[in-house]
Design a protein that fits this description.
The complex is a heterodimer of chains A (80) and B (231). With 80 residues, chain A is of the alpha+beta class. Chain A is built from 2 helices and 5 strands. In chain A, strand 1 and strand 2 form a beta hairpin. Classes of the chains: A alpha+beta (80), B mainly alpha (231). Strand 4 of chain A pairs antiparallel with strand 1 of chain B, so a sheet runs across the interface.
Chain lengths: 80, 231
Amino acid sequence: MIDTVTKKQLKVSTDGTAGPYIMVPVIQLADLKMVLDKHNLSYSIEEEAISLNDAPEVAIVDLGRKADVQAIQIILNSIQ
Amino acid sequence: MALAEEIKLLTDNVLAELTSTYNYYTDTKIAWKIVHKFIESGNRFKIRNMTTDTVTTQIELSAKARGYIAQQLSEATFQQFISIFENYFMELLEVWLTAYPKSLSNKQVDFKTILEQPDKDAIIKCFAKKELNELLYKKPEEWFAYLRAKINLGCPSADEINRFAEAKASRDLLVHNKGIANKIYESKAGHFTRFRDGERIDIPDHYHRGTWELIKKLVSDISNSAIAKLP
């Protein structure tokens, strides 16, 4: 799944101690939710969407500490 | 696990938790400073709360940041220091009383409570917890008097106990009285009273750090002395 703003592959990030997450433009949030729901993956969306220097808003999707990072990344990579 | 090892493990965990809480405080302050620098450099951002649809700009966030650091952050971490010590103190006494249960031998408890426990160890633990639960609601002076009666450690000093009592009284005001000093605080804080009845208390940097250092010292001194008492 390509980030429509950066034109790069959406990535499951694992930095920090709060568990894996995905940063996604808000305009693609519904599409990402559909993908996660389709694979029965649990997640929660952080309430705050941030826009930096007038760029499109970015949301953060938390995947939970037990998330299978590799499997989710494979799913994201498989979507054009 | 031997008692000395148990105390050592408890102490290591508590000191690590204290360090982690203090690091959270300084890291958060630094993060806010970076945000401030970022804004000063001409960057703009908007944060939209997707639940309430409220938008906060960099100007509004920068204005809030000083209060977040000076009040919310320092007060929250200060309260955590006290909670960490409370838990440490009660856990230390629990492992000690469990290892030396004879000091509880004059205690009375319902026969029903005994019947509910699976074995003797569980009964002793239950007695210890009941005793310590009563102690928790007493003044810090009484905590340390209890500690002296059970394990005569020769520490902490009277000055350290009084400083801790003031810190605990400040924490009680933050939790139960919106941070406003009252007569009860003045009485609990004694010579170390920082505010008078009706004043809003604060947790300045030096006091915040001083309390952390005091608690770290109390934990190390009490644990080391307790271990040294063991045969």
